[in-house]
Amino acid sequence: MSLLRAENLEKAFGVAAGAAAGVQAVRGVDLEVEAGQFVAITGASGSGKSTLLHMLGGITRPTSGRVLLEGIDLAVLDDDQLALVRRRRIGFVFQRYNLLPELSLVENVGLPLVLDGVSESRSDAAAREALETVGMGHRADHRPDALSGGEQQRGAIARALVASPAVVLADEPTGALDSENSRRVVELLRRIVTDHGQTVILVTHDPGIAALAGRSIRMNDGRIISDMTQADAPGQLLASNAPRPKPGGGTGHRSQRKRGGR
Ligand SMILES: Nc1ncnc2c1ncn2[C@@H]1O[C@H](COP(=O)(O)OP(=O)(O)OP(=O)(O)O)[C@@H](O)[C@H]1O
Ligand SMILES: [Mg+2]
Predict the structure, then answer these.
(1) Does the Cβ of 21 fall within 6 Å of ligand 1?
(2) What whole-number distance in Å separates Cα of residue 64 and Cα of residue 53?
């Protein structure tokens, strides 16, 4: 069983207002992602990258087709169940960090656990550990506005990791960063794949960043036009080291949690 599987995914916007005004953002995408893969998605602006990522992460419901995460069809979940899966099994990283300004960094990072009913002390401990992982432990008690963009993004990555999700989805996480900070953020994402057996799907405009991923997917006009394994990319080494699905079901991901938040 694949960790993540998309079958004939389509997304149309605005069709209700009349076919002529509708936008077909994604047109029949089939995709399988295995645990431990580092996948980059590139393509021109408007080619459907974000829309695809949002459907894979259960943020946007497809017009047709389906997404299976760890074998669960997201379409059968109601909104509350979907929110739960998003919180527990999917980590999101956005271009604009999306940290809450009134909370400290460690409170931001622990928030997914607090929302999930984990005690404050356990959430705090897990958040501090996640911040250590991204090299931000020393800034845990600062507010986001006291941090640089690169630091905020590393904090956002810690937040994405704190619940030990099955997959981290990152939409142009380096889009607002200079080249040095971009390099650090991508190295961090690469390392969580290699060192922690995580799965990362990264949307980027930067071919240099896409070249670091073990697998590179290119989109055009709502379709996947190429899907290549990059044998010499650092991310690929770990795909072969990735946890294998256990016989009898399950991805093995839960059993190899590093941070026992719950
Ligand atoms: N909420 C929406 N309502 C209407 N149209 C939308 C919506 N979201 C996206 N679109 C359209 O769908 C198409 C794909 O958009 P999407 O954001 O997925 O592209 P993208 O590849 O992520 O582009 P970029 O590189 O600029 O971020 C575009 O034509 C866009 O205008
Ligand atoms: Mg986009």
Answers:
(1) no
(2) 15
**Predicted local confidence at residue 16, as pLDDT:** 63
51 phi and psi, to 5 degrees?
-60, -45
Whether residue 49 has its Cβ less than 6 Å from ligand 1? yes
Residue nearest to atom 1 of ligand 1 (CA): 13
- Does the beta carbon of 48 sit less than 6 angstroms from any atom of ligand 1? yes
Extents of the domains making up the chain? 4-256
d(CA 55, CA 60): 5
d(CA 23, CA 107): 39
Which residue's alpha carbon is at the smallest distance from atom 27 of ligand 1?
45
Minimum mean pLDDT range among 17-26, 80-89, 144-153, 202-211: 17-26
Question: Domain 4-256 is classified in which CATH homologous superfamily?
Answer: P-loop containing nucleotide triphosphate hydrolases (3.40.50.300)
Vertex 35: Cα angle to 33 and 39 (nearest 5): 50
**Which pLDDT band, with edges at 50, 70 and 90, does 123 fall under?**
very high
Over residues 217-233, the mean pLDDT reads: 91
Question: Can you give the pTM of this predicted structure?
Answer: 0.87
The length of the chain is 262
Is the C-beta atom of 23 inside 6 A of ligand 1? yes
Q: What torsion, rounded to 10 degrees, do the Cα atoms 128, 132, 136, 137 define?
A: 50
